[in-house]
């Protein structure tokens, strides 16, 4: 499944920029009087290297974003610099790094009203409103800004960022559908340490940041031997191979292969590499109870026929998809449906489970609530090896313009 669109972004003019600066100056006065934070100015940010490297979720989520909330969140996480961007993002650090500096056009680019308080501005596109904690022992702003340190500040009782219980599980299904045809959407997530791996429904990685582990996928049946596939799976560091994408379904975004042909394709193109990398079963829509590409039977039966035909195949893990309403019509919990589906997949084959695509259909708020419930559960299940929410591209984990994380993306990256 590949669904995304690009929209045009309207840049506000100089008059709005001046007004925004005035509003934030008023805010700065109140902040300085209350908590010794100082507005440093409007700074440049880059998706390839974040000026403030730690993205944080504020209480109430993206729609509650204000500069005060971001500042308090960064302070509680042990950081001395806070920055707001795109009206709803909060970034923290102890230095502005990776080339970030004062914007050459002053405050013009910091023109987006905070989602939680339209009387304030919270940065703009690739622009951060940056605040610094000031105390008698703090370095001057110029000393701090040129530092390369990104470790949390030391306090008398610091609150340090902690690693997720599921470190290594959370990943990205990313699209290269942008003008450059690269992994820019996935690379927006490099600062979020809970996300450690990614795939793009194929190979190669198209410029994926090396901080992520890339996992190649053979999306469907090739027409014959493909040297580039061999090169991809034999690339040093390749530990896992993802098999066919939804061969059980007949949609345009599915590979649509009957079980016997899928088994023959596995034996020819994937099984030869099972000695050097761990191999996953085909990525199937496990909650599909309708017909499949094989005929008038569901995905569970399709998988049974596939396994029965692939007698010489070796599988190290299952690959499944899940799509369903966030709040099913009968009033049951969408999270409970999802958990039951994943558990059923494991109990059927007793293999570690990768959920390579999953999404609940609903509003942004419903999807955020769904993620906040299921992500801790996924991280706590020993048999769930990896998972990736759909997907790293505009209107899903990215905002409509593809210029930053959506509210759902922030929840996925930080929960």
Automatic annotation (TrEMBL):
<dbReference type="InterPro" id="IPR017853">
    <property type="entry name" value="GH"/>
</dbReference>
<keyword id="KW-0732">Signal</keyword>
<feature type="compositionally biased region" description="Low complexity">
    <location>
        <begin position="135"/>
        <end position="165"/>
    </location>
</feature>
<dbReference type="InterPro" id="IPR053183">
    <property type="entry name" value="ASL1"/>
</dbReference>
<feature type="region of interest" description="Disordered">
    <location>
        <begin position="133"/>
        <end position="172"/>
    </location>
</feature>
<dbReference type="Pfam" id="PF11790">
    <property type="entry name" value="Glyco_hydro_cc"/>
</dbReference>
<dbReference type="GO" id="GO:0016787">
    <property type="term" value="F:hydrolase activity"/>
</dbReference>
<feature type="domain" description="WSC">
    <location>
        <begin position="36"/>
        <end position="134"/>
    </location>
</feature>
<dbReference type="Pfam" id="PF01822">
    <property type="entry name" value="WSC"/>
</dbReference>
<dbReference type="InterPro" id="IPR002889">
    <property type="entry name" value="WSC_carb-bd"/>
</dbReference>
<protein>
    <submittedName>
        <fullName>Glycoside hydrolase family 128 protein</fullName>
    </submittedName>
</protein>
<feature type="signal peptide">
    <location>
        <begin position="1"/>
        <end position="22"/>
    </location>
</feature>
<dbReference type="GO" id="GO:0071966">
    <property type="term" value="P:fungal-type cell wall polysaccharide metabolic process"/>
</dbReference>
<dbReference type="GO" id="GO:0009277">
    <property type="term" value="C:fungal-type cell wall"/>
</dbReference>
<dbReference type="InterPro" id="IPR024655">
    <property type="entry name" value="Asl1_glyco_hydro_catalytic"/>
</dbReference>
<keyword id="KW-0378">Hydrolase</keyword>
């Amino acid at each position: 499944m590949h669904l995304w669109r690009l929209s045009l972004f309207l840049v506000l003019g100089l008059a709005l920029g001046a007004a925004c600066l005035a509003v934030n100056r008023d805010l700065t006065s109140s902040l300085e009087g209350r908590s010794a934070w100082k507005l440093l100015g409007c700074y440049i940010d880059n998706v390839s290297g974040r000026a403030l490297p730690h993205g944080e979720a504020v209480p109430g989520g993206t729609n509650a974003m204000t500069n005060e909330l971001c500042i308090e969140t960064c302070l509680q996480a042990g950081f001395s610099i806070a920055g707001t961007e795109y009206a709803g993002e909060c970034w923290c650090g102890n230095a502005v790094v990776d080339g970030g500096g004062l914007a050459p056009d002053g405050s013009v680019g910091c023109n987006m009203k905070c989602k939680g308080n339209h009387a304030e501005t919270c940065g703009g596109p690739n622009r951060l409103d940056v605040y610094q904690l000031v105390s008698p022992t703090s370095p001057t702003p110029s000393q701090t800004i040129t530092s390369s340190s990104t470790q949390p500040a030391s306090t008398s009782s610091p609150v340090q960022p902690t690693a997720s219980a599921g470190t290594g599980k959370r990943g990205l299904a990313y699209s290269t559908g942008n003008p450059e045809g690269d992994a820019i959407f996935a690379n927006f997530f490099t600062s979020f340490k809970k996300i450690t791996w990614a795939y793009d429904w194929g190979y190669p990685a198209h410029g994926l940041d090396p901080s992520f582990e890339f996992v190649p996928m053979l999306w469907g049946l090739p027409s014959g031997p493909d040297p580039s596939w061999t090169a991809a799976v034999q690339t040093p560091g390749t530990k896992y191979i993802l098999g066919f994408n939804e061969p059980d379904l007949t949609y345009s975004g599915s590979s649509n292969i009957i079980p016997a042909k899928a088994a023959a394709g596995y034996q020819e193109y994937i099984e030869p590499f099972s000695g050097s990398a761990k191999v996953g079963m085909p990525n199937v829509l496990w909650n599909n109870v309708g017909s499949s590409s094989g005929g008038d039977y569901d995905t569970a039966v399709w998988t049974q026929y596939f396994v029965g035909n692939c007698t010489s195949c070796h599988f190290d893990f299952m690959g499944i998809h899940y799509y369903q309403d966030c709040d099913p019509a009968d009033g049951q919990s969408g999270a409970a449906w999802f958990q039951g589906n994943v558990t059923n997949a494991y109990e059927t084959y007793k293999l570690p489970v990768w959920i390579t695509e999953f999404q609940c259909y609903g509003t942004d708020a419903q999807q955020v609530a769904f993620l906040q419930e299921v992500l801790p559960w996924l991280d706590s299940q020993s048999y769930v090896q990896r998972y990736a929410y759909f997907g790293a591209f505009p209107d899903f984990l990215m905002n409509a313009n593809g210029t930053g994380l959506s509210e759902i993306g922030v929840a996925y990256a930080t929960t």
